[in-house]
Design brief:
By secondary structure, this protein is an all-alpha fold. Helices cover 77% and strands 0% of the residues. The chain has one domain. The longest helix is centred in the middle third of the chain and has 21 residues.
């Protein structure tokens, strides 16, 4: 898996929406690629902050779309 594929699937990975083979591929990539690992950690941390601040499990769809666009810039 390359960086583009990993970033494209990052949201689904963090939302636990991928099959086990794809999860394993992404996790291998994150272990090898510091840039993608940093993006994943940023997203995990952001989700934690959002859960703590609003008590919800997921960010609103508008915020998710905006963050997805921002992550695509990296």
């Amino acid at each position: 898996m390359n960086c583009t594929e990993a970033v494209e699937k990052l949201w689904q990975y963090l939302d636990r929406e991928l099959d086990s083979d794809t999860v394993a591929e992404i996790e291998r990539h994150l272990q090898e690629c510091r840039d993608c690992f940093s993006k994943a950690e940023f997203e995990r941390h952001l989700r934690l902050i959002l859960r703590r601040s609003c008590g919800c499990e997921q960010a609103p769809p508008e915020l998710r779309a905006r963050l997805h666009r921002l992550l695509g810039m990296f």
